[in-house]
Amino acid sequence: MKKLQTTLFLTLFVQIILGQKLDIINNEAILFTLKQKNDTINFIIVDTKLDEIKPVFLFCQGSLPMPLFVKPEKENMWMIGGGITNFDIDEIKKNYHLIVISMPKTPVIVNEKNLNKSYCYIPNTEKPDEFDKDYEKADFLENYQHRAKKVLNFLRKQKWVDNSKLIVAGHSQGSKVATLIALNNKKVTHLGLFGANPFGRIDQNIRSYRKEAERKEISWEDADVKIENTYKMYKESYNEQTLKEKPYLLAWKSFSRPLINDWLKINIPTYLAYGTDDIASDLCDLVPLFYIQNSKNNLTYKRYLNLEHNFFEVKENGQVDYDKEHWKEIMNEFIKWTKK
């Protein structure tokens, strides 16, 4: 009975939304809202009209409570869009409806004063390091997958969606979300993973401390303390009482799930792209070995030399060169791959 009620609600919602004028933000994207019992799922289609039938390309953004749009006090509104502004959006739109889901418990549009230096939404401007508690409670892997499932179910029913193909891709934390979506949704036809960590999340902290000690930036004694503290923090994330007191630990628990086990269960074409100067993706070099061991041939990997986590070039002195970014060509290469 509950399933029937949910189906009827979504059907009614679809009928209502199609009969309404499109909610266009900043003449860049169309906003959709799915009301749930304990959640409101907002997502955008990066377009201003829906007069073409195209497959869906769902891009899963990385971590942190960033809004989709920023509203400065005096200047014009601008789009973050989960990082898609780094892409060649027009090229993607030639073939796909580009979709981005808003972060949970995070407004779609945020006044610039309510952003910290990392462009994260902060309810209290006097506490730039404190996120919304509701966001921290909602910031776990399975919730992102659940929210995406609702969005994709909605989109499948739209007349302007071509359901013969479904592209799901993600960057960083978003690669983990994209993985879980592909693992649980048989309609996904292509999976894209960018800046992924095949062994979860927390392991990169430990590897980072080791590298700092090897480079003599910190002593091995300091590295030893930091590694042990990491173990302690991770152990706390498995304590239910501690999670109530420190809800931010929930993300560390859920997103530290090793992805390699999930990837090996997925049989659709999978695309893995990473930079060689990215601590998060260091272990991607080992991934092809697992595919060989399991006689799997569905992996395409692209190793980008001297690029960091967000695909900027890295100078000889180790500093990031923010004038030399490569997201556009990297994403365009992926788009070409999806059309083969």
The CATH H-level superfamily of the largest domain is Alpha/Beta hydrolase fold, catalytic domain
Largest sheet, in brief, is: 9 strands, mixed
Roughly what is the average pLDDT, rounded to an integer?
93
Helix/strand-derived class? alpha/beta
| Number of alpha- plus pi-helical segments | 12
CATH topology of the largest domain: Rossmann fold
Write a concise synopsis of the structure shown:
Helix content is 36%, strand content 21%.
Question: In words, what does this structure look like?
Answer:
The protein folds into 2 domains: 2-200 and 258-338, Rossmann fold; 205-245, no CATH class. It has helices at 2-19, 89-93, 133-138, 141-156, 173-184, 203-214, 220-236, 240-245, 249-255, 260-263, 287-293, 327-338, and strands at 23-25, 29-35, 40-45, 54-60, 69-71, 78-79, 97-101, 109-111, 161-171, 190-194, 270-275, 299-304, 312-314, 320-325. By secondary structure, the protein is α/β, with parallel strands linked by helices. Mean pLDDT is 93; it is low at 2-18. α4 crosses α5 (173-184) and α6 (203-214) packs antiparallel against α7. The protein is globular, with a radius of gyration of 20 Å. A hairpin with a 5-residue loop joins β13 and β14. It has 12 helices and 14 strands.
